[in-house]
Amino acid sequence: MLERIATTDRVISSFLTVTADEAMAQAHSAEAEIAKGRYRGPLHGIPFGAKDNYETRGILTTGHSRAYAGHVPRDNAAVIDRLYEAGSVLCGKLALHELAHGGPSFDLPWPPARNPWNPAHFTGGSSSGSAAALAAGLVLFALGSDTGGSIRTPASLCGLVGMKPTFGLLSRYGVLPNSWSLDHCGPMTRTVEDCAIVLEAMIGHDPRDRASVSVPMPDLLRSLRLDLSGVRIGVVRHFWEEEIPAAPALAASSEEALRVLESLGAQVETVRLRPVREYCDAWTLIEAPETFSVQREALIARPHDFGDVFHERTLIGCLIQSSDYVDAQRLRGRMIDEMQPLWEKYDVLFTAGAGPAPRLDPKLAAWPSPNRFSPFALIGAPAIVVPGGYSDDGLPLSIQLVAKPFDDGKLLGVAHAYEQATQWWRKREAAPTSFGVPAPIAYEKPQRSIAGIDSRIVSLCERAAASAGLRLGDGHLAILCAAAPHLLEIIARLRGAAGTAEPASVFSLAKM
After folding, report:
1. Full set of structural domains in the chain with CATH
2. Any residues with CB less than 8 A from the CB of 509 and at least 6 apart, and which?
3. Which residue from 462, 460, 455 is spatially nearest to 477, judged by alpha carbons?
4. What is the mean pLDDT of residues 466-477?
């Protein structure tokens, strides 16, 4: 793996830090233990990579941001410790969108990761390096984080299995926070079986994470199946046919996937959820102020430590009133309640995933950009993407399956049956090195100005920024002013939509 990283990563830029010495020490230790009969299980000696927002003791953890360029943690993230206990070997820390937020940035100390299927194309994000390294065969599994699709999008575009488990099933302790209400940890793997193996090692209650739940340990591997007789699947067609139209290749592969599922015995019928935009509106009004809260002190003291994409997605937090945030949490609670009749009727829901990957370009960071993944982060349900075919030019496509919270095993079972029936996972990308080292993408940081922006918007943004303690220069103020009209439209759509629902963040205290 280390040799492959040395020869291949110069093309795809998936690693920020390679931990060669630590990996060799861990590998020698695993070899010695196994030779003495102290085999820890299927992950013993298996090399992996971790998104660089997972803290690692004594190893630089940057979040792909200047703001954390010198951050060397004293402790490991909880799931890193669990993987070490299983005997896994860390090869290094992987690229991401800055602090797991936004799109690909070209004004950071490290370049964006590239897609191994064609390095001129996008990996998806924010777990971009995790997908690139795994797809290129530089590690055998990788860790990502998913707040609104950040595992499932890059797994889709790089031909991998990527799973966001039920909210609270994996500890997030030691993972740089993006949004406490929405963040999930999860794995990327080549196969569904590998996903089950890695998840089983990562699951465990952790009182250091307030969202962590204590549930019986699931036997995920025993949930894998080949026959889907009696399985009920609700197909959320309007997500990819009406609201976020899928590319023709993705639409065709989704229809073929449904035919495969039916041939395996599943009962398939069309269902409707709320429009994607309503989920994404609520998601934005929860995620933006929480991210702003996490980074507020740094944004005040060191605004130039962050890239423009991060500023665009985060500064809007100062414009969101507390009542709008609470209303979004209330609407989220209502959305979760609305799912209960569907969970009683269907074992899983089906949507198109993503693909084919577009060419890597600064315009991919445009905001707002609703997607088919955020709704299922918002409701906390387990969701998985599985390869669903390839476009005419050989780029991966995917399907997405979703299950009732804590039905992670059932979800893996359906995904495994589909995967084994289609065998898409067996296809491998061309060696990225065959494309040669890509030329850097030309990027000139734009000169931003508030000239020509509606004076009422400028005044609103100046007052909100000052109230939040921000001291914005003209460039950063212009970024906020350009994003503000889109945010105000979202706020206007959401106000009054929650009815009498309680916030999803209302909690109960378990007995000690």
Report:
1. 2-271+346-428 (3.90.1300.10), 277-331+448-494 (no CATH)
2. none
3. 462
4. 96
